Recover the amino acids of this structure.
């Protein structure tokens, strides 16, 4: 009886709230009743913002109930809806904000912006399950969005919710192995991904060499990965853009949330500074993960140490005239000691300020400025060789973006950006009194990148929409610089230096520029399916100098210069997208191809650290990548999840004018990150009282390596003969994870308890294969390195007050 009364009270409350909301119906007319017929459906566009903090409302639902159709807003709060000419009742809904009802008289394409106020009805939870049409109606292709709710229900490594790890379960995204920082997208390198936090660049997106990501889930608002069509406002990288934004603090009341885990803990506090106008958000994480290394079978790893911390601070102020000012700061620090042999530490600082202003229903703009700094150190702690080597990079960035809705047919985006990169000198210093290492310093290059862009999304009719973009970028390498000249027609090395030119501070040395056109096209075949095509040209003026399979913290970020041209990529994709069962099941198949020019490669046994003649170790090559992605996703019901398969190839060719400048006899060879087959399966099951069960399985082909094929004797020494570059592969990789979440552990508290097991079967997946011989007369033997070779259970308690 009590449950019946509670249910009746709940329904009555909703009904009263619905009636009162509908009493305040907005009446809007778009177009003229005498305007010509625009076809079966007329497009309208708009932006939904919260009147509480003037920020875009992401994921707001716009419904047309009697037509049984609708859509949701994107990460910028924008939406597009196509309706028949005539009268319609629209409902704008979002959890925590008042429903808005609109009686719309629609006669021609136009725009409808909406401001939503804070809800006056407080309910424990409202779950709105509605299928999204974005899968086949959105113009751009190759865009991946996951909510924090999605990733919190996935099995996690040591209980830490991870943005980057969740991306690895999507088609087109991979990594060279466990313990590798960064990620690879559609056959691209780690440094070809532009990783943004609140619009500022991050040069390292991982903690503990890839085991945790740099993003605290308690302060993260949304994240979007552009791996296909990249909007023209983004530039500077070839493969993808990962755009991550933090939340702003609550304007009205103090809130605390966090998590306590066996390897790390986190805490976030937010609330008003000036109620209704100014808010703060402070979040931090700290790892105490040394103990879990004892589970790893590798002796050196067991004797190692790995720790990190990071913190976020966000202050936001909402002005009366629909504009906001937000300042944020991010700091992270990592330290890793590998047994007694060597160690790393690395840190990131990122400060950002953004001003967002809505001038009127058609025009808005954002202005932002950023400072970023990255530092890393390699140290050898003991003996006569004890020393530390440090390097880093600083940058200053300014962005100006304008958003102008011309009509329901056109949305115009215009803007520009400037980035000034300043390489920090590489410095070697002795450690301890016994060290015989001499100090050394090598200056690093500086460069400035300019970009200006324009983009327009054009809706021609119900079936055809096109997203057009054009970006122009200009890069200048400038002094101070000591530039070495080499003898023409011979390989560059120290012995062929013929002169030296000195450039003063700020003096121009070399410049590069070019157009970067972007095109995305969507043709809707039916009510539930479409074809999408895209083309991108991207230019990259900054490079991660690393000759290892996976990036390490000490690797050097190098701007393009007199001897190092920018990388240029042309990317093509085409895909078929189809939804089923009222848009609750999404499917797609995409094909892509990419050409890359001026790809950076390295001579055998290249010396990259503390090298004042770095250009003598670098080679220029070309690359190509191609593949196919199949994706099937279920978005609602008790069981949700997805299944994906990717076929992906990535090849490199270096055919220089001399044998010393040629790799693999000038023939194509697989890249270090080439993994042809990848399968990912993710399943989530809702349980009672807010609980859930999750599992994921991943399989991929082992990556390439260069193997020992034969040997010969010379003066009593066995000389190994190796294969062509990357002619063999390490064993295939597979892993199964599971998680179980219990909701509402403590009464009257929004909390849960998560149990996870990473690598359930304890599989010793190979990270690499290397050769070692015990004496000069013996043939080197192959060994498999497995970073993680055990199952890793974890328990994490998450709460929100």
């Amino acid at each position: 009886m009590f449950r019946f009364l509670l249910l009746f009270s709940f329904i009555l409350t909703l009904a009263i709230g619905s009636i009162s909301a509908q009493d305040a119906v907005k009446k809007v007319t778009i177009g003229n009743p005498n305007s010509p017929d625009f076809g079966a459906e007329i497009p309208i566009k708009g932006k939904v913002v919260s009147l509480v903090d003037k920020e875009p409302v992401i994921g707001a639902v716009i419904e047309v109930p009697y037509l049984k159709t609708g859509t949701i807003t994107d990460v910028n709060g924008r939406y597009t809806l196509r309706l028949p000419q005539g009268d319609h009742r629209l409902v704008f809904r979002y959890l925590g904000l008042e429903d808005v009802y609109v009686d719309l008289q629609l006669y021609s394409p136009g725009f409808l912006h909406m401001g939503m106020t804070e809800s006056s009805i407080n309910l424990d939870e409202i779950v709105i399950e509605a299928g999204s049409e974005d899968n086949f109606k959105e113009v751009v292709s190759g865009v991946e969005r996951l909510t924090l709710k999605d990733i919190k229900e996935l099995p996690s490594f040591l209980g830490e919710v991870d943005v980057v790890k969740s991306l690895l379960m999507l088609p087109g995204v991979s990594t060279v192995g466990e313990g590798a920082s960064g990620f690879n997208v559609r056959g691209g390198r780690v440094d070809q991904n532009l990783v943004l936090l609140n619009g500022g660049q991050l040069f390292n997106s991982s903690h503990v060499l890839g085991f945790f990501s740099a993003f605290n889930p308690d302060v993260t608002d949304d994240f979007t990965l552009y791996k296909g069509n990249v909007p023209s406002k983004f530039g500077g990288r070839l493969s993808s853009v990962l755009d991550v934004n933090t939340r702003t603090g609550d304007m009205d009341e103090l809130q605390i949330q966090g998590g306590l885990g066996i390897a790390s803990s986190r805490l976030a506090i937010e609330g008003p500074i000036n109620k209704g106008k100014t808010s703060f958000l402070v979040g931090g994480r700290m790892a105490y993960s040394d103990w879990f290394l004892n589970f790893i079978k590798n002796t050196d790893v067991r004797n190692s140490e790995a720790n990190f911390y990071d913190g976020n601070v966000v202050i936001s102020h909402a002005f009366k005239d629909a504009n906001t000012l937000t300042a944020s700061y991010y700091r992270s620090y990592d330290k890793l000691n590998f047994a007694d042999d060597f160690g790393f530490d690395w840190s990131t600082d990122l400060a950002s300020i953004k001003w967002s202003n809505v001038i009127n229903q058609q025009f808005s703009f954002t202005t932002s400025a950023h400072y970023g700094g990255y530092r890393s150190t390699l140290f050898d702690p003991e003996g006569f060789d004890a020393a530390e080597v440090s390097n880093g990079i600083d940058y200053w960035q300014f962005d100006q973006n304008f958003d102008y809705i011309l009509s329901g047919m056109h949305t115009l985006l215009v803007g520009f950006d400037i980035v000034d990169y300043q390489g920090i000198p590489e410095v070697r210093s002795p450690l301890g009194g016994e060290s015989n290492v001499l100090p050394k310093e090598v200056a690093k290059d500086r460069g400035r990148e300019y970009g200006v862009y324009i983009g327009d999304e054009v809706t021609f009719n119900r079936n055809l929409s096109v997203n057009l973009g054009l970006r122009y970028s200009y890069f200048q390498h400038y002094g101070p610089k000591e530039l070495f000249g080499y003898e023409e027609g011979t390989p560059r090395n120290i012995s062929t230096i013929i002169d030296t030119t000195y450039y003063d501070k700020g003096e121009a040395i070399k410049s590069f520029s070019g157009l970067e056109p972007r095109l995305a096209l969507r043709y809707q075949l039916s009510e539930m399916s479409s074809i999408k095509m895209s083309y991108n040209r991207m230019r990259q003026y900054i490079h991660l100098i690393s000759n290892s399979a996976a990036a390490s913290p000490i690797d050097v970020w190098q701007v393009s210069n007199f001897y190092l041209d920018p990388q240029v990529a042309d990317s093509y994709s085409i895909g078929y997208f189809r939804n089923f069962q009222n848009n609750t099941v999404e499917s797609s198949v995409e094909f892509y191809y990419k050409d890359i020019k001026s790809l950076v490669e390295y001579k055998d046994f290249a010396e990259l650290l503390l090298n004042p003649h770095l250009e003598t170790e670098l080679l220029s090559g070309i690359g190509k990548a191609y593949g196919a992605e199949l994706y099937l996703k279920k978005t609602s019901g008790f069981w949700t999840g997805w299944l994906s398969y990717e076929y992906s190839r990535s090849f490199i060719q270096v055919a220089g004018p001399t044998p010393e400048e040629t790799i693999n006899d000038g023939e194509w060879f697989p890249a270090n990150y080439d993994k042809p087959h990848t399968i990912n399966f993710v399943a989530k099951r809702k349980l009672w009282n807010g609980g859930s069960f999750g599992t994921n399985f991943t399989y991929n082909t082992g990556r390439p390596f260069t193997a020992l094929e034969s040997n010969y004797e010379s003066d009593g020494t066995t000389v190994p003969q190796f294969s062509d570059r990357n002619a063999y592969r390490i064993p295939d990789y597979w892993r199964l994870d599971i998680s179980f979440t219990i909701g509402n552990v403590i009464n009257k508290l929004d909390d849960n308890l998560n149990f996870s097991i990473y690598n359930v079967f304890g599989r010793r997946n190979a990270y690499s294969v290397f050769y070692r011989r015990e004496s000069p007369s013996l043939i080197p033997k192959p060994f498999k390195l497995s970073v993680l070779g055990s199952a890793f259970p974890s328990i994490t308690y998450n709460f929100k007050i």
